[in-house]
Amino acid sequence: MGTERGPGKPAGNETGRRTGNERKSRVKFFVDTAEVDEIRELAATGLVDGVTTNPSLVAKSGRDFLEVLREICELVPGPVSAEVTATEAEAMIAEGRHLAAIAPNVAIKVPLTWDGLKACRALSDEGTTVNVTLCFSAAQALLAAKAGASFVSPFVGRLDDIGQDGMKLIEDIRLIYDNYPDTLETEILVASVRHPMHVVEAARLGADVATVPPKVLRQLAHHPLTDKGLDAFLADWRKTGQTIVGG
Ligand code: E4P
């Protein structure tokens, strides 16, 4: 999952479009939760590159937002998305600055509204990582990139919920961004992930990041044939009476 873009990187083929072979892969998984214990446990696997939270997830945790944010930022080195709750640009910027001061790895989440885009531009210009959230169309994703967002979060599950094709949106955004690899450097962060196939499809389409609920992250590792195969191997091993260490 992912594309290494930036200054000095090859600009694509003669059509200007970057091909799959020209990409350097950079798979990133973020965990979509505000539950610190879950994050601690999953971060220990070394598979977690960042965290996303939102006001609903914070409410569900029942804890103080700033305290939770501080704790999460110490657990993972990568970006931790913290969402503003103001709706006007100036107030969003003030909240964004306040949240960004908590730790260097805070990413400020702003909603995909006109005010959110204005705040995105201002905060990005100050060097703050911005994640533009609640993206439901390619047009919105184009605006987020133009506004200097580090991440755009298309919500695939919520689109599926209303009978639209969430993954088609990822495909469209990937195509659009790859048409302008030297100027649109926003990373596609697939959000509202409901099941492992969303993650697989995100990777197939070259999304940069998938933010995954803890349950779905754990599901990714499971396959009934793995469990069955392991049981059989261990049963046969016990029959040998051997041990690998300390035998
Ligand atoms: C992303 O940053 C959001 O927190 C999240 O993915 C929303 O997912 P939901 O549609 O399951 O609430």
Tell me what you see in this structure.
- With 247 residues, this protein is an alpha/beta fold.
- It has helices at 36-43, 55-61, 65-75, 89-100, 114-125, 138-146, 156-161, 166-179, 196-204, 214-220, 224-240, and strands at 28-32, 50-52, 80-83, 106-111, 129-135, 151-154, 187-190, 209-212.
- Strands 1-2-3-4-5-6-7-8 form an 8-stranded parallel barrel, surrounded by 7 helices.
- Helix 1 links the parallel strand 1 (28-32) and strand 2.
- Helix 1 packs parallel to helix 3 (65-75).
- The N and C termini lie far apart (43 Å).
- The model is unreliable at 3-23 (pLDDT under 50).
- Erythose-4-phosphate is lined by residues 32, 52, 54, 133, 153, 155, 157-158, 191-192, 211.
